[in-house]
């Protein structure tokens, strides 16, 4: 008879591996199954995030930004550079080394915490049994008291732009482009499209983003989205809104793309490379045997309640596989919550305070409700904004694009949302996320002492501005 586990987790992305570590910390006998293989065919943990997502994309964003800075931005500091060159192969090799470092790190964490890491494909049978097909094709059936499904997501494919891995690539292929394309097309001006478009724009490509929607960054606060578009356009990203791609054709080494504008007019463009970034979908192929009884929702996600329990007792699902934003940290927190629930603890996750970041330069970051959401809910509110152009540290760094916007309830002053486009927006928004988690008012944040000179003073001033008390800017009359 096979060993019995307290918990078996299928998938070792940021949702699954974090859940496995937390479960083992809580004394549960835990196994985590992963089917990802590296270029040498060796089993590897970390999922999308570490292998083809957050970490590799940020590595390329940082490399390309340093190149761009060395080439274009240092003159103002009195530093002259010439002959600055980029070695794309070295840049990609560095990225691959970092991936290896982090994916290998998970195996070390599993060992240190007593998680059994298994390489192969897991399938949920009935009665919380999991079939494991290892990478040599051997099949075993494992028993568990609880199963956590964490199989993640895949890029959405669209028939009008079939990925060939050469001239037309998805977000995974875009991390492997070996030379700077002269003209690069990107379908979808969402988070991933903007990040990958920025990488190649900085490296010298002429980048055109074709976005079907009329609204830029529709889920973001409108004011911040408008400001962001202005900044990205100034950087040279050619963002075409209301442009739905309807066809692609490969002619020689070129991709001919046709698209239809909202007014019905048909247009076309020719690119040397095309990246398709039209979103991601939950990945459930091969995960569930027919007899597992686990229900999906109408979008193909595993149907779960607030605590990530599926309709089958003892079976949970977390991360990109379930409703909510497809973000690594959202999945990790769900993983911790589920491990704690299984261990008999009271646990919950605050879905109202999940920060969201676009790692362009400047970054775009948000937490909580947008002004449009607060308005639609009919709540009375005040807004405070502050531009980085008036922040000493931002001026010293010559990094002054953008602003901080904080929204608070007009009656209670409780902070409802914070939206930032600007330098280090990701880290700044986290300060407000912490304040919100503790139920902070704008006044509380305004009364907090902030170091001078820092970028975070923009957060301080925006919080003060909510109640008409900003110091380094004339205040708008309070509503
Ligand atoms: P995944 O990371 O997709 O992991 C699922 C794992 O399950 C995979 O390793 C898969 O091989 C394995 N698996 C699937 N089926 C089986 C099976 N049957 N048996 C065994 N194993 C199985 N998010 C952020 O928060 N910040 C970012 O900056 C960010 N940048 C991104 C950039 C890019 C280019 C992309 C593509 C994504 C980015 N994301 C980012 C999103 C983030 O990567 C995902 O939200 C996150 O990886 C989801 O975690 P997960 O554990 O749910 O799934
Ligand atoms: P995200 O979900 O943030 O990664 O963004 C994906 C974007 O791709 C969305 O804004 C979609 O509107 C956009 N999109 C989807 N299909 C097409 C298409 N055929 N042409 C242009 N944009 C598209």
UniProtKB/TrEMBL annotation:
Residues 5-335 form the FAD/NAD(P)-binding domain. GO terms for molecular function: dihydrolipoyl dehydrogenase (NADH) activity. Residues 354-463 form the Pyridine nucleotide-disulphide oxidoreductase dimerisation domain. Coiled coil: none annotated. Its main location: cytoplasm. It comes from the Bacteria. The keyword Glycoprotein does not apply. It catalyses: N(6)-[(R)-dihydrolipoyl]-L-lysyl-[protein] + NAD(+) = N(6)-[(R)-lipoyl]-L-lysyl-[protein] + NADH + H(+). Binds 1 FAD per subunit. Its cofactor is FAD. Its EC number is 1.8.1.4. Keywords: Cytoplasm, Disulfide bond, FAD, Flavoprotein, NAD, Oxidoreductase, Redox-active center. It is found in: Cytoplasm. The active site is a redox-active disulfide bond. Belongs to the class-I pyridine nucleotide-disulfide oxidoreductase family. This is Dihydrolipoyl dehydrogenase.
């Amino acid at each position: 008879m096979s060993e019995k586990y307290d918990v078996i987790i299928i998938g070792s992305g940021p949702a699954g591996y974090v859940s496995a570590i937390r479960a083992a910390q809580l004394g549960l006998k835990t196994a985590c199954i992963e089917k990802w293989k590296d270029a040498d065919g060796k089993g590897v943990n970390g999922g999308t995030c570490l292998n083809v997502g957050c970490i590799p994309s940020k590595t390329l964003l940082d490399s390309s930004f340093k190149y761009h800075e060395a080439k274009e931005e240092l003159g103002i500091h009195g530093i002259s550079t010439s002959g600055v060159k980029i070695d794309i192969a070295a840049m990609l090799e560095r990225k691959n080394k970092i991936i290896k470092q982090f994916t290998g790190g998970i195996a070390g964490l599993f060992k240190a915490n007593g998680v059994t890491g298994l390489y192969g494909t897991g399938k949920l049978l009935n009665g919380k049994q999991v079939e494991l097909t290892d990478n040599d094709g051997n099949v075993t059936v494992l028993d568990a008291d609880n199963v956590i499904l964490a199989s993640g997501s895949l890029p959405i494919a669209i028939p009008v732009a079939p990925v060939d891995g050469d001239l037309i690539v998805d977000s995974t292929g875009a991390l492997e482009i070996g030379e700077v394309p002269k003209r690069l097309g990107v379908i979808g001006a969402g988070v991933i499209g903007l990040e990958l478009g920025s990488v190649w724009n900085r490296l010298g490509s002429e980048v055109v983003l074709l976005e079907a929607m009329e609204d830029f960054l529709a889920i973001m606060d409108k004011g911040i989205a408008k400001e962001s578009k202005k900044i990205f356009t100034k950087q040279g990203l050619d963002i075409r809104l209301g442009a739905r791609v309807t066809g692609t054709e490969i002619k020689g080494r070129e991709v001919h793309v046709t698209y239809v504008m909202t007014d019905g007019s048909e247009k076309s463009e020719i690119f040397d490379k095309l990246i398709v970034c039209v979103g991601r979908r939950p990945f459930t192929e091969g995960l569930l045997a027919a007899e597992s009884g686990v229900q999906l929702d109408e979008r193909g996600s595993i149907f779960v309640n607030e605590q990530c329990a599926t309709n089958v007792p003892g079976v949970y699902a977390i991360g990109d596989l379930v409703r909510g934003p497809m973000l690594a940290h959202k999945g990790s927190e769900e993983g911790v919550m589920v491990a704690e629930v299984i261990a008999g603890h009271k646990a919950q996750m605050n879905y109202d305070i999940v920060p969201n970041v676009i790692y362009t330069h400047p970054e775009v970051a948000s937490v909580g409700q947008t002004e449009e959401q607060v308005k639609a809910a009919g709540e009375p509110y005040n807004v405070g904004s502050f531009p980085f152009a008036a922040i000493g540290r931002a001026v010293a760094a010559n990094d002054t694009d953008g602003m901080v916007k904080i929204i608070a309830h007009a009656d209670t002053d409780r902070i409802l949302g914070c939206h930032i486009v600007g330098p280090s927006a990701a880290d700044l928004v986290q300060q407000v996320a912490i304040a919100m988690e503790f139920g902070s008012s704008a006044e509380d944040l305004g009364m907090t002492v902030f170091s001078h000179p820092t970028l975070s003073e923009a957060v301080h001033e925006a919080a003060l501005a909510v109640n008409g008390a900003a110091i380094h800017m004339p205040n708008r009359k309070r509503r």
